[in-house]
Amino acid sequence: MAGEITPPAILAPTDLLYRGIHPLYCQGGQLTSGVFVLKKKHTLQEGPSVGVARLVPLTSFHALMGEGWGVGALEASVPQSLTLTVQSLPDPRWGEHAHAHAVITGYQKLTDKGRNDVARMLRIALQRNILRSPAEQTTPK
Amino acid sequence: MNKQGSPPTASRTDEGLLTWGCYRARKIASFTRGVYDFPNATVSISVGPSAGWVEQLAGITNVTVGVASGPFITGRIGVNHVVTGLFSEGAKRISFGEAAHFVTGFIEDFVPSHCSGSIIYGKTETSSLLGNVQQITMVEPVGAATFSQIAVAREYSLSEQLSRLHQLPEGWDGEGAPRFSEATCATADTIIKGLWHITLLHSVSPTVLLGPLPDGSLRFECTYEDKELFLTICGTVVEVQSWQPRDAVESSVYSETGPAGAREYLEWLVR
Fold first, then answer.
1. Which chain B residues have a beta carbon less than 8 Å from that of A139?
2. Does B92 touch chain A (CB under 8 A)?
3. How many structural domains is chain A composed of?
4. What's the ipTM?
5. Model-level pTM greater than 0.80?
């Protein structure tokens, strides 16, 4: 049942994180920068959402994403190695998997250049492990 | 999905197939995808059972890329063809000037020390033909006409993508992303034309993706050899960021310029 597991506020480096991939951020299997956008003004809640794999099955996570979205995965150690933090942030919109929700944060302190650098590395890491390909979609419906 | 095990790196398999690079995860695809034989013809390639490992390989081959008949792959891609929709798992693309010979349908990354391409899992008897891919590509240079074709195709493709992005409604990302402004799209169009000129001028073909960002800006993501260049367009301003080598974490350049200034960085990319 939801609420039985209380994840730590800061996740372990070995935690696998799922990240939704909007179809427009993938061209022919290649992820583009939009998959991780980091802004200085982002609040904690506005940081890139991820799902903690040990707390939400892949299928359930995928179902939480929009139609046509894909799913990639990366270890928490990736953002952590880039001086970022992966912080648990339960999201009621995720229902029984609310506690699987986490956000990447800590980039607000970086320069514009630095934020782009780490966003690119996150995208590269995600590219290496795409679990569900997004629907090919480059035109508006 | 459909993983059939992850055998260790090997130079030869039980099936007598010679491999180049690391054979990390054997997957077989069930996939049919058009291979676009420039400029208009389409050649279908069918790949046997399973899916999920297919990624687009975009680029040009200047030697024959043969897809041998077999249980998994049938079809053939000819010489000097623009190739999209080839089949790969870890491999990403065949860059211009590289080549590949698909023989069994098992496709994997090269170890960097072997060559800079992707792919390849060949039958023993084809190894002498394939040899060093770089060597093969050097003896069959692609002419200016092909580069012209590439440039035209690239411009058309990017312009089409820009047009599609321009039509996106507000909230296209499901979270209130704004539409792309006229000024942003006009600047992007200027960049596309600059790419066209540079492709012709230098006879090179950098890989370019044009992607949207949720803040209403557009980003060209360009790679060539060991360089990567981001041109982020917001109105008439172009934010430039570049990395060399491509696996560098920290960018070497970060600045703002205009469309004319962006061209200088595109020149840098292909030099």
1. 164, 167
2. yes
3. 1
4. 0.89
5. no
